[in-house]
Amino acid sequence: MWIARSIPSYSPAEVKEKLRNSHDAILLDVRTNAERTLGHIQGSLHIPLHNIVRQSDSLEKYRGKEIICYCQSGNRSVSAAARLKKLGFTVANVQGGIGEWNFQQLGN
Predict the structure, then answer these.
(1) Buried (b) or exposed (e) across 89-98, using 16+ Cβ within 10 A?
(2) What CATH number does the domain containing 54 carry?
(3) Nearest alpha-carbon partner for 74 in 52, 96, 91, 92
(4) Residues contacting 2, CB < 8 A, separation 6+
(5) Residue 28: which domain range?
(6) Which of 26, 98, 82 is closest to 49 using CA atoms?
(7) Do residues 37 and 64 lie in contact, with contact meaning Cβ atoms separated by under 8 Å?
(8) Which letter does DSSP use for residue 65 in this model?
(9) Is residue 25 part of a domain?
(10) pTM of the model
(11) Domains held by the chain: number
């Protein structure tokens, strides 16, 4: 998928820094509802990947911001980011997903 290659990927530490120092980015969890109940990054929005296009209207108020997607390992979030990019959103991906976030012990 050519569009996926054009999506920036940030390390969890870069994402945490970006969110701390900027009001121009939001974090979007694209995992399933069941996965989210096991834990999530504080302050993140949630739209499961299978609903991302159907529920994209709920992201319109964030159109001027960078939407940084995450999942468990970083694969589904690239897919979600690609779909949102096709809809005209500015997007990025968390490398390694919440699994890497937790591994690096970044907390919330």
Answers:
(1) bbbbbbbbbb
(2) 3.40.250.10
(3) 96
(4) none
(5) 2-103
(6) 82
(7) no
(8) S
(9) yes
(10) 0.91
(11) 1
- Please state the φ and ψ torsions of residue 107, each to the nearest 5 degrees: 65, -150
Beta-ladder partners of 93 = 9, 69
Q: Which residue has the tokens 């319109």?
A: 60
pLDDT digits (tens, 9 = 90+) for 63-77: 999 999 999 998 999
Known catalytic membership, residue 69: no
Give the active site residue among 28, 71, 80, 82: 71
pLDDT tens column, 33-82: 999 999 999 999 999 999 999 999 999 999 999 999 999 998 999 999 99
Q: Is residue 89 part of a domain?
A: yes
Query: What is the C-alpha to C-alpha distance for residues 94 and 108, in angstroms, rounded to an integer?
Result: 14
Question: What is the Rg, in whole angstroms, of the alpha carbon atoms belonging to the chain?
Answer: 12
Residue at token pair 């920036």: 8
- Can you tell me whether residue 45 is helix, strand or coil? strand
Residue 108 lies in a domain: no
